Amino acid sequence: MRIRVPGGVFLASIVALSCGWLAFYAHGALARAADNIMQGQVDRGSFSGAVLVSRAGKVLFEHAYGMADAQNGTRNTLHTRFRIGSITKTFTAIIVMQLEGEHRLTLADSVCSYIQECPPGWAAITLHHLLSHTSGIYNLTRTKPGGQPLEQLLASPTTQAKVFARFIHEPLGFTPGAKFEYSNSNYWLLSRVIEKVTGLSYEQVLQQRIFNPADMQDSGFTHDWSTTPHAAIGYWVSRQGKLERAPVVDGSWLAGDGGIYSTVLDLEKFSDALDSGILVPRATLERMRRPVTAEYGYGWSTPRISKLTVNRQQVGHGGSLPGFVSQFQRFEAEKLTVIVLSNNQRSDPPQVAEGLVSAVFKEPFTPLYERESVEVPQAILQRYVGDYDLEGVIWTLFLRNGHLFVKAKDGSTPDIELLAESEVVFFIRGSDTDITVLENGKGEVDGLSANMRDASRFAKKLR
Length: 463
Prior knowledge:
Layout: H1 7-43, E1 49-55, E2 58-65, E3 67-69, E4 74-75, E5 82-83, H2 88-101, H3 127-131, H4 150-154, H5 160-165, H6 184-198, H7 202-214, E6 220-221, E7 235-237, E8 243-245, E9 260-262, H8 264-276, H9 282-288, E10 315-321, E11 324-331, E12 336-342, H10 349-361, H11 378-382, E13 386-390, E14 393-400, E15 403-408, E16 416-420, E17 425-427, E18 434-439, E19 445-451, E20 456-461
Antiparallel strand pairs: 1-2, 1-12, 3-4, 5-9, 6-9, 7-8, 10-11, 11-12, 13-14, 13-20, 14-15, 15-16, 16-17, 17-18, 18-19, 19-20
């Protein structure tokens, strides 16, 4: 039996099928472009982990690469749990803003209103200063002269009192509010503020105020990482230059500065929860993303528009712990979210995210591993040899076989080769940080400018 279809209905059906095919083709083209970018990183041993890109809550690309546990042959999946490090700070800032919205605290409050053993010099430090990294408080994860390597220290269980003791008696680096200096101590203290106000543990508050409302069932606060289900093993490059299991940071060292683990799927739920306004009102979110100083707001990095942000306004946060690096980015005008979680510390999540965003917007993209270097005469390189102070950490530049290398003077890093883009601009293979040699008016090397994604930092030459 033949059924006659009206011409208008037939035409509408053809248009609908064509639009559907075009959408499928476009999605497939994006997936191929994104996977090609990712595979280039994977093939060079520069990435293992999981990535996800979504627009307005719709997933455009998601994929997992490499091994969660190389020894046991366990592959990474979209459900693999990764330690997200400092992305935790965004969660902490949201909780503080929730409490402010409930009139249970104000950002003008002194930290000493909430910390019992508050040094007298901290009286002028407010919650605003902690949120924006403008307090001047000593960074608890800074390696102290003569102290044991940081990774060894953080691998041992500790107590809140011992963590507090690492920075409570250190002098302030500057007058509160005078400038930006990233310090994990700020958000460790905010965890204590949250506990004081709510009468609950930071972990309980996190569960009640963010994980449950956002339905993040595969996220939590790190305690014993070895017993966490579906957890990736972290890998890093040892001082001998070999990729191996990284020391495991004990959960007792962490709080609202870096203690959360999650998955790409759960962080997408977090992104959706921000869009829906169930965590904080839109006006509050915009306030948090307004830069205070140095391209940082309240728990959000707000880098200037450049080729590194694919020439668009971007907000987000990165994270790093031994063996784990991560990136959570949002492009508000385009309603785009990019999530990169890796258990290979050779990975560069901001670079991976840049490649994925370029694929979405069909922008040109050159991977860092294709960056070309030039030869610089050894006599010029010899002028740069010496020690440099970068925010309290001493870095040594030295020559080996006619090439320039850098390492932390305390021995906490491997020797890293600096490749020359010109006689005064250098870079590290696989990193988008430019290091520019600076001279004073007498033609003497005065220091280095490390131009990173979030800001430029000056390292003064000591000798």
